[in-house]
Amino acid sequence: MKSVRNLMPLCSKQVFPGRRFNSNSNDLTKDENKILYEKLVKQNYNSEKHTEASSFAKWLTPHYKFGPSRIMNYDWSMKSIYSWYKSKRIEFHKYNQRYVPERVKSLGSDIAASHFIVYRGGAIRFRGQNNFIKWTNKKEEYYVNLPQIYDPNYFVEAIDASDLMLYYQGIENFKNLFKLKWLSLRNNPVLDNWCLDYIGHAIPNLEYLDISNCPQITAAGIAGLQKLTQLKILVVNSNNIEIQMACFALEDIIPGLFVLIQDNNDIKLQTKRENLNVNEV
Which domain of life is it from (predicted)? Predict the structure, then answer.
């Protein structure tokens, strides 16, 4: 690395870290380019061979005009590598949660959504049943208690997606659930206003919604829930005055709506929310 840095003064306008070099640079003369390339690669420069070189070789070896190889122009620190890994992991989760039309075509919207939620650790309840279906025994397959073929008699009535990291792509799996009345999305760190806007027009018959402990939700997201004309109970956990005012305005827009604004330090409201009977919704 020191030997490379010692050669840097040959390029008057060259900046080593954090950027690629301009391929149209004319800072060096032809002879200077040749000398720089031979010193870096320790080989004689051959214009024909260099032109025919593969893109991978050009990426690894120093360019005869621009000094260090392209691989040295990136930030290889642990912080940068972790940031890259984190972004790729988010991309993987979004792709894994995408809406699959083939699955819905073979199972139907309700059964397909039940497989999607139960497989990821959530729970669902079909209409006419009293208990939630959840994948608790990991030694068995997740679909043991779920129908595996299309059945028009199955309708998802309640979904408990608490503590699940569902992105917008995952919320799209809730489309066409016309019998869904109870939905819990609390403790979701990636749930944002776009998700609430989608819920507002995709689940028109929703009566209970829990979005507590979702830090990315703002007052604009609460306003997007005005499309849920059948909503009866909305659970929110925020000390933000704008979110609280949006909840009060939502109560005026939707008749019969009760917004439960849960304070972080209010134990009474927590007890009241836990005592709400799911079957009454």
Answer: Eukaryota
CB 7 within 8 A of CB 35: no
In a domain, 33, yes or no: no
Report the pLDDT averaged over residues 245-272: 76
108 in any annotated domain: yes
User: In what order do the strands lie in the sheet containing 133-134?
Assistant: 133-134, 123-126, 156-160, 182-184, 208-210, 233-237, 258-262
Tell me the torsion sign for CA atoms 172, 173, 178, 183: negative
CATH of the domain at 210: 3.80.10.10
> What's the chain's average pLDDT?
78
CA distance 116 to 110: 10
Question: Facing residues of 260 across strands?
Answer: 235
Virtual torsion, Cα 278, 225, 97, 166, nearest 10 deg: -60
Domain membership of residue 14 (yes or no) is: no
Q: Which domain holds residue 147?
A: 94-279
Is pTM, for the whole model, over 0.85? Answer: no
